[in-house]
Amino acid sequence: MNLLEFINIYFFIILIFYIIYLYLLFGERGKGLIIYMKKKFIVATKNKDKLNEIKEIMADFDYEVLSMTDLGINKDIEETGTTFEENALIKAKAVWELTGETVMADDSGLEVEALNGAPGIYSSRFAGPNATDKERNNKLLALLEGIPFEKRKARFVCAIAVVYPDGSNFVVKGTCDGYIAFKPEGSNGFGYDPLFYIPEFGMTTAQMDPKKKHSISHRGRALQKMVNMLKQNG
């Protein structure tokens, strides 16, 4: 048993005794004094931007969303899969093994038609392991130089894996279609958002307000599928 598991069991036992104490002390009235506790939902990421986006999307749902950093987990998880789905499940299982809690992990990226689906699962490492968003966007623009707009089709992909405390799991996927613009536009979002142009809205995803973006984004769609599955599974 690791330290996190011991702490979780300890606090669970304390909670049970607290509930019994209130009930014995106040009877039926004690039920109203019991502190409501949300379900823990751990996101297997250290990316603050991604975590904030997930928290915004899940704000109306009944979960306490925690990151690896919140739990003091600094483990680097090697993504050895060949698909977004495989990598998401690898990350979720790795954090589940450390916590025993419900864990979600996502793997997302950009697929550009003119580049045969690249950068794909390598989107975050497209310009090197320590590259900035600006450097990744500049490399993408350089590779697409001279290519007309109609041939700059692309899509964002997000696969989400959820592992329950008993080890069972599921994976869902969401996509968002668009084009790669000729220059960055907008200051909202992160990653390739300033280049990802959606004709129906006449703007990039970095120009959208968060609520609109979440309603049509690859991650927003995948998260909605995930929430539906969580409700369905109880």
Question: Mind explaining what this structure looks like?
Answer:
The chain is an alpha/beta fold and 234 residues long. It has one domain (38-233): Maf protein (Alpha-Beta Complex), CATH 3.90.950. It is 36% helix and 21% strand. The chain contains six helices and seven strands. Strands 2-1-3-4-5-6-7 form a seven-stranded mixed β-sheet. Helix 5 crosses helix 6 (218-233). It is elongated, with a radius of gyration of 21 Å. The two termini are 27 Å apart.
Short note summarizing the structure:
The protein has one domain (38-233): Maf protein (Alpha-Beta Complex), CATH 3.90.950. 36% of the residues lie in helices and 21% in strands. The chain has helices at residues 3-26, 48-57, 84-99, 133-143, 210-216, 218-233, and strands at 39-43, 63-67, 103-112, 153-163, 169-180, 196-198, 203-204.
| CATH arch. level architecture | Alpha-Beta Complex
Helicity level: 25-40%
According to DSSP, the number of beta strands is 7
Q: How many domains comprise the coordinates?
A: 1
For the terminal residues, how far apart are their CA atoms? 27 Å
Question: Which word captures the global form?
Answer: elongated
Structural class: alpha/beta
Keyphrases for this structure?
single chain, 234 residues, alpha/beta, Maf protein, 7-stranded mixed sheet, 7 strands, elongated
Task: Give the helix/strand layout.
Layout lengths: L2 H24 L12 E5 L4 H10 L5 E5 L16 H16 L3 E10 L20 H11 L9 E11 L5 E12 L15 E3 L4 E2 L5 H7 L1 H16 L1
Parallel strand pairs: 1-2, 1-3
Antiparallel strand pairs: 3-4, 4-5, 5-6, 6-7
Helix pairs in contact: 5-6
